[in-house]
Amino acid sequence: MLKKLCMLSMLIVSSLTAFAQEKSQLTENAIGIKISMLGYIPEISYQRVLSNENRLDVNVAFMKIDENKYVNIYGTYQWYWSLDNNFYWYAGAGGGLTSGNTIENESKVYPSIHGIVGVEHNFKAPLQIFGEFRPETYLGSEHFFPHINIGARYRF
How many CB atoms sit inside 10 A of residue 8's CB? Predict the structure, then answer.
């Protein structure tokens, strides 16, 4: 089911880019999907440009770890710089909350902090592809996750 949802989302983004007008600069909003290579966790990703140098990135991930189900919501404040005409790199920091139920039906909430560094390419069509590294740690625990993410977003 999850693979079908990811494939459908990518198909929609691809079809939208085929009919879109050309854009050569950053647009104010972008929405898409990113996949964490650490367990192939799908995430819904939204970006909002705040100024010529920074933006806000908000994500929601649905995870299943050892029969436990979690929802991870996190935000990142990012600075971005142009490398070439439509090629950018970015870095930032943020935090989030992970909530879920354990096998024993205990409800848990874990606050987290993370950093991020990545590169992205914005096509003339409203499509953005990216790769990033996001080390994340959960406060009050020993858990550390070095996420490597890839994804695509529709820019509007």
Answer: 10
